[in-house]
Amino acid sequence: MTRVVCVGLAVLDVVFEVPTLPSGPGKNFARGLRHVGGGPAANGAVTVARLGGSAAFVGAVGDDVAGTRIADDLRAEGVDTSNLEVVAGTTSPTSAVMVDAVGERMIVNHLDPSLHAGATADASAFVGADAVLADLRWPGGAGVGLEAAAAVGVPGVLDYDLTTPIDDTSLLAAASHIAFAAPALEARSGTSDPTNGLVRMAERTDAWIAVTVGADGVYWLDDGTVHHLPAFAVEVVDTLGAGDVFHGALALALANGRTPADALHEASAAAALKCTRPGGRAGIPDADALTTFLMNRA
Questions:
Q1: In what side-by-side order are the strands of the sheet with 105-110?
Q2: Which of 13, 44, 79, 123 is geometrically suited to a Cys-Cys bond with 248, CB 3.0 to 4.6 A?
Q3: What gap in Å lies between CA 71 and CA 61, rounded to an integer?
Q4: What is the H or E stretch that residue 192 is in?
């Protein structure tokens, strides 16, 4: 079974369903409430497991109730948590998430600065991986994972989303594949145009690079030429976690030997299918659902 090791952030999401996203001070009333697991790398691991891969998560949680819930949820999904560290005296990452009637979301995340400072990452956690998926929320762990992937010649996929300022030089050098979120590419490259942004970033990394642009699909750079894959047209219910699903499916497809173009097709389909389902992680599709979706869109 193809094994993908995911390193980075695991979160407890408290998801409020609201008619419209709050725009200022005042009281707002939710019409629904869910507590679900979240976090880019953690959701990526769950995606891998649901799509039929062997998934492992490397990261940290606090010694609190939220941390226990995060770990239990990952194990229930079949994710290997043997390298999930509990850091004493810290609080687990938690997000308040608002999802409106058309599926758009607003997220307020808290990440204890002591959490990853007290965590350790060892290359042994990545032994046997057919691919490594890393997010930016734990740069130290991401660096170890991507370098371990590079050392044995397997895909090292970097989920490059907006985060607090970090020195990403070593991560850009270690990753074999980087998929940017559009706002992150704009912030990093200095341009809102995805084509120009990819061209500029190609001057800073030798990795294969792509950018997801929501309803506009995904752009990627191949031999100096920018290509575009339109998004699948779906009725959007909830976009929470769609980017995480994209990256998890992308990493699994690359680990299975798919070409980057075919991997993007599968990842885009998985993310689109997730958007048709509510509840963040609860809406991640399984392999049968993805196969049926792709067959119907052929």
A1: 32-38, 11-17, 94-99, 105-110
A2: 44
A3: 8
A4: none
CB burial of residue 155 (10 Å; 0-12, 13-18, 19+): buried
Burial of residue 133, with CB atoms counted within 10 A of its CB: 0-12 exposed, 13-18 middle, 19 or more buried: buried
> pTM of whole model > 0.90?
yes
The residues facing 7 across adjacent strands are: 58, 134
Q: In the structure encoding, which two tokens stand for residue 266, read together?
A: 């599968």
CATH code of 3-21+32-114+129-296, in short, is 3.40.1190.20
- Reading the block at residue 104, the tokens are 């758009």
Q: What is the mean pLDDT of residues 180-186?
A: 96
pLDDT at 298 over 80: no
Q: Supply 280's token pair.
A: 């963040």
* Separation of alpha carbons 281 and 271, rounded Å: 11
With 0-12 / 13-18 / 19 or more C-beta atoms within 10 angstroms meaning exposed / middle / buried, residue 277 is middle
Cα 177 from Cα 209, distance rounded (Å): 6
Alpha-carbon distance of 215 to 187, in angstroms, equals 20
Residue 190 has a CB neighbour count (10 Å cut-off) of 10
**Closest Cα to residue 240, out of 18, 8, 64, 79?**
18
Q: What is the pLDDT of residue 160?
A: 97
Strand pairing report for 11-17 and 94-99: parallel
Backbone angles phi, psi at 214, to 5 degrees: 55, -125
Q: Report yes or no: 124 and 69 within 8 Å, Cβ to Cβ.
A: no
